[in-house]
Amino acid sequence: TMKGALRESMIWVACGLAFSGVIAYAFGSKAFGEYISGYLIEKSLSVDNVFVWSMLFATLAIPVKYQHRVLFWGILGALAMRAIFIFLGAALISRFWWLLLVFGVFLVFTGLKVIKHRDDEGEKESTRGLGLLRKIIPVSDQLDGQKFLTRINGKRVATPLLGALFVVEITDPVSYTHLRAH
User: Fewer C-beta neighbours within 10 Å, C or N terminus of the chain?
Assistant: First the structure.
């Protein structure tokens, strides 16, 4: 319910803010400021992703009973991709210092794209993501229960659930990059 979701969200926000007190006590005010800044950035990113996901589920007509499955695997995958990006990026930067310049140019480029905001921005996210997935595997318009893959006429095809999962997976790194560009 909305009331339950609000209560649970408030509990998690309270936990995050309480932990900031631990950071301040253990490591000082500078670490506290860094933690709060990071926390607010991540919270902004999360809220942004929720809107993208709700548009995605509406566009693909994903029933509420399957949305948890898509989000569970999508968030788990997004966390794994973030870890890979962080460790790979750190390893590359420590070996090739000039990559900082490449990453900096990329951030400036994405920042400029964010500044050039369009009225239809965000409407094509699911279409682009599904188009990319369709280059890899055919995507059916029909659900097959909670399956991500199914067989139609003997061919393995993706269901709209896998399409939604794929878009959820690519939404996190894309929005993370755009948010970092600010």
Answer: N
- For residues 75 and 170, the answer to whether their CB atoms sit within 8 Å is no
Exposure pattern of 102-139 as b/e (b: 16+ CB <10 Å)?
eeeeeeeebeeeeeeeeeeeeeebbeebbeebeeeeeb
pLDDT below 50 — which residues of the chain?
A: 178-182
Beta-strand ranges (E) seen in the chain are 149-152, 155-158
Spatial neighbors of 59 by CB under 8 A, at least 6 apart, are 126
> Which residues does residue 150 pair with via DSSP β-bridges, in sequence order?
157
Token look-up 């926000």 returns 13
State pTM to two decimals: 0.64
